Recover the amino acids of this structure.
C-alpha cells in the first residue's frame, strides 16, 4: 500500500503550529509513551504533512516554515531539528488578528495578502487548521470562506464561532466537507483536568459551590487575552465547558488571568474548589499545574487532524459530533467526558458515523 | 491629657467600614492589650477610642444623606459586620466624582448623576473641624485624589493617602504640604498581612540566604469593587508600579517580575486570594521553587494599619511636623517617599512615637 499522507494547511504560525511541526519530526523517531493514539485509523503523526502556512508577521512571512516556527514572538522551546521542506509561509489577512496588546509584539509584514483559496488549491491541502490568536473572528471568517471555496476540510483550534455557526455548518455540509471545532481542548489542559476533578467530586456526592481555575502564561495567547473583550470570549467557552460537567448551577471562573513574558510557553494554572460533603462538611481543594502550552494543544490537534482525514475519506459532511466533543471545548453538542472518549473511539473504528 | 482626633474620610467603602467598625469593636481595649492589626491600643498618647469620624464623602446614592453608621453597610460594601456601630450623627456628603468612578463602575457604585451637586470639600473640612483626611477612593482616581489633597491643603488638614495615586511620594505635592506646614503620610496603604509584605519578606529571605531569584510572580484575585474597578488595565498603571516597586526594591538586581491585581472573581466577595511563585537557584545553580497561597478578608486587612497612621499624623500635628512623615509612610504604605526594610520599619516608627526621629 502506498504511504498515506495527510496534507494540511495552517493559518497562524505560532507556538501551537510550532509544536505541530516539531511533533511531526519528533514522532518519526518513535517516542510513543505520551500519545493518546500512536496510530489512529492507521495514521501515525508523521503521516501529517504541512503543505501550506499563512501568517502576518514579517519574521515568518516569506520564510521557510521550518525556520518560521522558531521566529519571535514564538517562544516554544525547540525539541527537535526540523528540516526544510520547501513550504514558504504566505501572507494572510490581518483584519482583527492583532489586538492593542499584541500590536507592539507583532511586526506586520508589508507583503500583500495572498489569494487564500487559490493557495489552498495549489498546495493540494486536504484540510485547513485555524491556529490564529483568540478573538480573530474576522480573519477566521476569511479563512473559512477560502476553505469552502477550495473544497477542503476545516479544523478550528480557536474560540471563534465556526462550528457553532449554523450558516458555516450548512455550507460545509452542502459541499460534503467535514468541520471540527471550536476551541481546541489540550491534552492535559486546564479545562479537561478541571472537568475531570469536578466529575469525580460529583460521582462521590460532593456538592461543588465555587470553583476557579486561573492560568498565567507567557505565550502570545496570554498577551492577547489581556484585552478584556477577547478574554471574555475565551472565558465563556471555557467556563461553559466546565459548568456542563456538573448537573447543577455552580460558580465558575476559568481562564487566562495574566501574561508573564518570562514564562515562555509555560502555563501555570491555579485551581481552587470549594464544596460540601456528608453532614455539610466543607471540602476545599487547591491544585497547581504546570504545562507547556504549545505541546499541550498540539497533542489534541494531531488527533483532530487524523480524525478529520478519516471523515474526509468516509465523505462525512459537517461537524463530527463525537470528535468535536472529545477534542474541543466548545463543540456543537456536549457529551460527558467519558461518553466523548467512547464515542470518539467508536467513530474512528467505524462503528458510528458521527 | 490628650485631645480627640477628628477624622474625615473620602470614599466610604469596605476599608472605611472596617476602620469605623474597628473603632467601636476595640473602644474599651486596655492600653497594653494586644490587638491584631494595631501596633498599640495606645499609640503614643492616643488610645484607639480617641478617634472621631466627623465627615465622610462618597458618590454612592445608597450612602449619601445617610448616617455613617448605616452607610458603611450599604451596597456594594462587602466588609463582614463584626461590630455594632451606633448612630454617629454624621451624614455622608456627596464628594466630587471626577475620575473616581470608571465608566464600567457607575452602576456598581450607584453613582449620583451630576458633579455639580458635589459639596465644597475644603469648606466641609473647615466647618466640621476635621484635622486629618483619609483618602480611600477607588484605585485610578488620580484627579479626584488631587482634588481632595488640594482641599486638605486649603483647609489645613493632614492627609493619609490610602491609594496608589501618588501625592506623598510625589516631590511636588510633598513640597506643597511642607510649605503649608501640614504633615502627610502615604501612598497606597499596606495590609496587615498582605501580598506585598509577604512577597517582600520572601524576596528578602531568599536574597539573605544567597538564593539567586530567577523569576517571581504575585497574582491577586478578589470579588469586591476594588477588583471590579481594576478590570480596566488603564486604571491599574500606578497600582502596578506601587506594588511592583515595593517588591523589586528588595533585591539589588533585576528579576523578571509580574505583580498585580489579576482578576475579578465575583463569587469571592471580600475574600482576596494571592498566589506567590518564585524560582531561584541555590548552590550549583540547582533549582529552588516556592509556591504560596494567601487567603484573607480584604477590607479589614488594612484598617488597623490606617488607625495607626491616623494617630501618627496626630502626633506629627502635636509636634508641629510638616510634609511627608517618612517613618510611618515606609512602615504602613507600599509606595512611600523612602523605603525602609520591613524589620527596621517597625522600630523606626517606635522611635518616632518616642520622639527620637523627626518625620
Amino acid at each position: 500500500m502506498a504511504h498515506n499522507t495527510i496534507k494540511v494547511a495552517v493559518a497562524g504560525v505560532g507556538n501551537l503550529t510550532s509544536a505541530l511541526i516539531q511533533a511531526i519530526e519528533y514522532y518519526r523517531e518513535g517516542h510513543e509513551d505520551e500519545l493518546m493514539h500512536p496510530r489512529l485509523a492507521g495514521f501515525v503523526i508523521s503521516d501529517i504533512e504541512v503543505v501550506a502556512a499563512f501568517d502576518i508577521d514579517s519574521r515568518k512571512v516569506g520564510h521557510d516554515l521550518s525556520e518560521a516556527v522558531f521566529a519571535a514572538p514564538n517562544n516554544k522551546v525547540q525539541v527537535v531539528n526540523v528540516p526544510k521542506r520547501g513550504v514558504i509561509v504566505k501572507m494572510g489577512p490581518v483584519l482583527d488578528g492583532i489586538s492593542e496588546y499584541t500590536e507592539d509584539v507583532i511586526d506586520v509584514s508589508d507583503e500583500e495578502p495572498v489569494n487564500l483559496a487559490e493557495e489552498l488549491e495549489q498546495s493540494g491541502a486536504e484540510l485547513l487548521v485555524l491556529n490564529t490568536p483568540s478573538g480573530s473572528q474576522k480573519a477566521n471568517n476569511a479563512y473559512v470562506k477560502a476553505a469552502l471555496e477550495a473544497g477542503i476540510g476545516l479544523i478550528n483550534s480557536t474560540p471563534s464561532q465556526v462550528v457553532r455557526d449554523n450558516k458555516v455548518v450548512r455550507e460545509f455540509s452542502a459541499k460534503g466537507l467535514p468541520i471540527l471545532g471550536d476551541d481546541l481542548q489540550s491534552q492535559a489542559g486546564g479545562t479537561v483536568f478541571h472537568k475531570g476533578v469536578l466529575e469525580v467530586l460529583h460521582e462521590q456526592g460532593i456538592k461543588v459551590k465555587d470553583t476557579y481555575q486561573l492560568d498565567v502564561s507567557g505565550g502570545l495567547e496570554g498577551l492577547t487575552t489581556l484585552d478584556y473583550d477577547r478574554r471574555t470570549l475565551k472565558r465563556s467557552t471555557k467556563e461553559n465547558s466546565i459548568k456542563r460537567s456538573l448537573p447543577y448551577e455552580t460558580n465558575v471562573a476559568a481562564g487566562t488571568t495574566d501574561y508573564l513574558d518570562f514564562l515562555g510557553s509555560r502555563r501555570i494554572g491555579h485551581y481552587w474548589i470549594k464544596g460540601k460533603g456528608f453532614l455539610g462538611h466543607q471540602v476545599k481543594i487547591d491544585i497547581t499545574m504546570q504545562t507547556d502550552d504549545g505541546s499541550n494543544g498540539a497533542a489534541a490537534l494531531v488527533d483532530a487532524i487524523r480524525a478529520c482525514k478519516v471523515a474526509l475519506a468516509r465523505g462525512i459532511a459537517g461537524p463530527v459530533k463525537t470528535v468535536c466533543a472529545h477534542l474541543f471545548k466548545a463543540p456543537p453538542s456536549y457529551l460527558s467526558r467519558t461518553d466523548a472518549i467512547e464515542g470518539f473511539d467508536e467513530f474512528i473504528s467505524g462503528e458510528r458515523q458521527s | 491629657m490628650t485631645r480627640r482626633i477628628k477624622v474625615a474620610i473620602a470614599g466610604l467603602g469596605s476599608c472605611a467600614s472596617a476602620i469605623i467598625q474597628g473603632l467601636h469593636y476595640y473602644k474599651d481595649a486596655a492600653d497594653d492589650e494586644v490587638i491584631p492589626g494595631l501596633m498599640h491600643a495606645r499609640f503614643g498618647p492616643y488610645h484607639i477610642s480617641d478617634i472621631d469620624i466627623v465627615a465622610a464623602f462618597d458618590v454612592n446614592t445608597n450612602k449619601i444623606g445617610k448616617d455613617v453608621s448605616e452607610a458603611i453597610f450599604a451596597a456594594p460594601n462587602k466588609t463582614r459586620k463584626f461590630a455594632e456601630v451606633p448612630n454617629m450623627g454624621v451624614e455622608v456628603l456627596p464628594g466630587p466624582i471626577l475620575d473616581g468612578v470608571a465608566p464600567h463602575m457607575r452602576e456598581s457604585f450607584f453613582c449620583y448623576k451630576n458633579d455639580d451637586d458635589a459639596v465644597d470639600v475644603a469648606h466641609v473640612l473647615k466647618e466640621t473641624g476635621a484635622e486629618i483626611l483619609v483618602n480611600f477612593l477607588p484605585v485610578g482616581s488620580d484627579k479626584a485624589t488631587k482634588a481632595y489633597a488640594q482641599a486638605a491643603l486649603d483647609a489645613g488638614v493632614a492627609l493619609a493617602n490610602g491609594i496608589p495615586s501618588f501625592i506623598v511620594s510625589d516631590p511636588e505635592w510633598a513640597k506643597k504640604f511642607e510649605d503649608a506646614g501640614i504633615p502627610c503620610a502615604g501612598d497606597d496603604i499596606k495590609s496587615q498581612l498582605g501580598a506585598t509584605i509577604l512577597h517582600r519578606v520572601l524576596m528578602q529571605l531568599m536574597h539573605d540566604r544567597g538564593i539567586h531569584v530567577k523569576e517571581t510572580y504575585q497574582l491577586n484575585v478578589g470579588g469586591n469593587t476594588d477588583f471590579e474597578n481594576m478590570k480596566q488595565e488603564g486604571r491599574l498603571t500606578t497600582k502596578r508600579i506601587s506594588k511592583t516597586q515595593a517588591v523589586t526594591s528588595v533585591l539589588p538586581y533585576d528579576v523578571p517580575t509580574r505583580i498585580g491585581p489579576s482578576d475579578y472573581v465575583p463569587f469571592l466577595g471580600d475574600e482576596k486570594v494571592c498566589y506567590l511563585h518564585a524560582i531561584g537557584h541555590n548552590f550549583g545553580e540547582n533549582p529552588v521553587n516556592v509556591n504560596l497561597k494567601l487567603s484573607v478578608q480584604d477590607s479589614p486587612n488594612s484598617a488597623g494599619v490606617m488607625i495607626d497612621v491616623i494617630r501618627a499624623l496626630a502626633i506629627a500635628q502635636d509636634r508641629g511636623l510638616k510634609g511627608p512623615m517618612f517613618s510611618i509612610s515606609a512602615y504602613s504604605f507600599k509606595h512611600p517617599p523612602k523605603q525602609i526594610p520591613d524589620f527596621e520599619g517597625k522600630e523606626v516608627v517606635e522611635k518616632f512615637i518616642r520622639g527620637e526621629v523627626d518625620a
Notes: Chain B touches chain A through 21 residues (CB under 8 Å).
